[in-house]
Amino acid sequence: MSTGPGADSAPAHNPYDKHDKHDKRDKHAKHAKRNRRGERDKRDTHGGPRRTGTFSSLKVRNYRLFFTGAIVSNTGTWMARITQDWLVLSLTGSAAAVGITTALQFLPMLLFGLYGGVLVDRYPKRNLLMLSQGALGLCGLALAVLTLSGHIQVWHVYLIAFLLGMVTVVDNPARQSFYSELVGPSEVRNAVSLNSANFQSARLVGPAVAGALIASVGSGYAFLINGLSFLAPLASLMLMRTSELHQVERAPRGKGQLREGLRYVAGRPELIWPIALVGFVGTFGFNFPIWLTAFSDDVFHAGAGTYGFLNTLMAVGSLIGALLAARRGTSRLRLLVGGAVAFGVLEIAAAFSPSFWVFALLLVPIGMFGLTVNVTANSSVQLATDPVMRGRVMSLYMMVFVGGTPVGAPLLGWITDTYGARAGFATGGAVSLAAAVVIGLVLARVGGLRLKVEMHGRHPHVRFVPRERLTTAA
């Protein structure tokens, strides 16, 4: 049987001697190549020094299709998100109502997120994504029909937000764990980062278009465009070459798979503490629909255009953070903790900013560090997880990251309504900062590190060093 180009036409005399030597050399060469590839993949999986190009995942055809479809649907999603928040505020005049809408959208993830992960580990992710993307499009079209017909009421928005949340119970873990099948383990970090850049690029366009549509023709057309935008990811999934997907082991149907996933995460500090940190940050620090609507309406006395502009500034920072993450070769936990500390500090600073432009400009680094936290945690958790468990682990990750919103959004909405937008924003930043400091110290202790403070001239220098080094110095 031919094993390479030209094998059939090669000379075949003395087959029991020379050909056998060639076979041995070929086997040794292939074995060495496999070892080198295995070592390279191992370094990639554990966050080694390998650096990739910023757009290296786009060399893969299936990922290019996925990326292109996502650009269209993400733009529609951002249009709908901004329009939904402003519609609820217009119908009720309450920031707490915006918080309730956000909470209802993420409540299903909190209640059923782990069951979604079990389904994702059990069934083909491409098929699940085709179903979920179609359902999301139908929810968008339903909201468009209600708004354009003039029959929209706030309970309609609440109901559709809850239905959207039910679909994302499967869509989120399926999408997050699908990257490894599209590009393989060596490019997962880059693929996750580029997807975040894609999402934030859409955030630059979506809010601006939504603001223009709201001001000119009303909210209904923004919802209509969002519903139709899901045709793009459906087409991209259909056009993929299934033979080029990286095959992963699927979990067989059986009892106890949910408990198995929880035990798996609980026994690994490299998983449980990053997930805990993004849980605190996501629950208390990412309530921007509440804060930005409140700042636009109550603090700066502006309209939907200003709200869209503030979201665009955050998107600029998030896009910068995503591109930096795509270029970065590692997903170190110290970067995760440092990014969360900076995120909390900047939110507190923005809460007490003296003018509109100071507040607006601080949203850029807030977006950048918020995205850094999300991408670093996401990729480090994926790379530290066995493929057969990835759906359940990522469903837990998404459950604590966005599923905590039903707790955080109404609480911070109430604080914002009662004590003002500045108090609400500062509270979210303070909780994020406290969680980052505490979990950073826990990770340092687990990793055998201790905090060391040295004076360099008049300035203190703070760093973590191994315990053994401190003992030797003493």
UniProtKB/TrEMBL annotation:
Chain positions covered by the region annotation Disordered: 1-53
Keywords: Cell membrane, Membrane, Transmembrane, Transmembrane helix, Transport
Transferase is among the record's keywords: no
Domain (Major facilitator superfamily (MFS) profile) ranges: 54-447
SUPFAM superfamilies named in the record: MFS general substrate transporter
CDD domains: MFS_MefA_like
Bilayer disposition of the protein: Multi-pass membrane protein
Coiled-coil segments on the chain, per record: none
Keyword Ubl conjugation annotated: no
Domain of life: Bacteria
Main location: membrane
Biased composition (Basic and acidic residues): 38-47
Bilayer-spanning residue ranges: 63-80, 86-115, 271-292, 304-326, 333-350, 356-375, 396-415, 421-444
Subcellular localization, as worded in the UniProt entry: Cell membrane
Compositionally biased region (Basic residues): 21-37
InterPro entries recorded: MFS_dom, MFS_trans_sf, TM_effector
One family name in Pfam for this protein: MFS_3
Protein name per its UniProtKB record: MFS transporter
Protein species of origin: Streptomyces gobitricini
